[in-house]
Design a protein that fits this description.
By secondary structure, the chain is of the alpha/beta class. The protein folds into three domains: 4-135 and 303-338, NAD(P)-binding Rossmann-like Domain (Rossmann fold, 3-Layer(aba) Sandwich); 138-297, Dihydrodipicolinate Reductase, domain 2, CATH 3.30.360.10; 347-431, ACT domain (Alpha-Beta Plaits), CATH 3.30.70. It is 35% helix and 25% strand. It is built from 14 helices and 18 strands. Strands 7, 8, 9, 10, 11, 12, 13, 14, 15, 16, 17 and 18 form a twelve-stranded mixed sheet that branches. Helix 1 (13-24) crosses helix 12 (303-320), helix 4 (86-95) packs parallel to helix 5 (105-121) and helix 13 packs antiparallel against helix 14 (406-416). It is elongated. It starts with a strand and ends in a 5-residue tail after the last strand.
Length: 436
Amino acid sequence: MSELRVGLLGLGTIGTGVARILLQQESLISRRLGKPVRLVAAADRDLTRDRGIDLSGVRLGDDAMDVVRAEDVDLVVELIGGYEPARSFVVAALEHGKHVVTANKALIAKHGEELFALAADRGLAIGFEAAVGGGIPCLKALREGCAANAIQSIYGILNGTCNFILTKMEQEGAAYDAVLREAQALGYAEADPTFDVEGIDTAHKLAILAGMAFGARIRFDEVYTEGINRITPVDIAAAAELGYRIKLLGIAKPHDEQIEMRVHPTLVPFDSQLANVNDSYNAVMISGDFVEHTMYFGRGAGERPTASAVVADIMDIARAHPDGIGHLPPPMGFVDQARRDLATMPMADVACEYYVRLMVRDEPGVIAAVTSILADHRISLEAIMQKERHATNNVPVVMLTHETREGNLQAAIARITALDAVGDDALILRKESFAA
């Protein structure tokens, strides 16, 4: 049976891990597939660094296009990251008749539709399991294991950096800025942590999951996105007192001809499985009409887990090579002609329960004025509590609402923060409950 020859773009952390697996596990992979998978070429800008593996049998260079165009490469692995030049290299690889595997969630979320069409037009495969959840096989579970189900919801802790920060804030009572600096020192957060802490990385992954779950075109630009930078120790403590932890969640649900897609810090009950996913771990909860509730847990990043997922995609494609990819599932789990352009539900129409933290002057009548405005907008309260007075004579007031529309709550908060006795820095968090 024909071997599969692999070319690798990028020998950073993940690329080194992929090379390590392909070289060290060559015999195991061959026994599983009945054919060899061989790393023949790799490109990286820095070829001087000691990566701790023997690459003497691999053709090395600093020009990615040499790998893309090479006649002895059947499959190109893109591990450069970002939108460009990654997109250009992947397009060129497909145009040169190469299968593609990538761990690049930004690329798939932004340009996946273009790349899927190009691959299908040329009878090629494109794998991206490692783009969501690192080593957790959540895309494979959704695409294949849950294929007989109408998916009812997806909830995911999809960014290890944010989960690490929120876990440390809870455990140590530390402020966000201090924990972020610690995460950067430990290598969990980048020097510029924007993509992680502002929820963009999670939104990339959620857009892919939602498209695959609901047979829809990927609409990353329409995912409602909030980060974690406004969470304070006061909020962590108040949530705990009420029986909740705060997690950055990606949430997707179907609504007839619309998809609800949102990323934001969320209150989750202590006794839920997601509340107990800590440190840099990721978890994805997928619910279907027949399978009911399933959950996938593990390391969401790092050399070994992510490289494992990349090589699993390579092995899937190797099974079909060179006889065509007809028996492989479509990359997004639905045949292309069945996928739809579904609208994204406006955030104002989303209904859930809410946590609201206000800073108010400690004087009579303020709480009565706040609750009166909430009543005007048909918002009822589950709980309300007042925390310790600050040096400014302002006090944090925390409220939990019953279910209401986002639009109603935002209108009420706009009126409330216009009151003289209420600060304009209200924090709104959504609250979710789970059946598993």
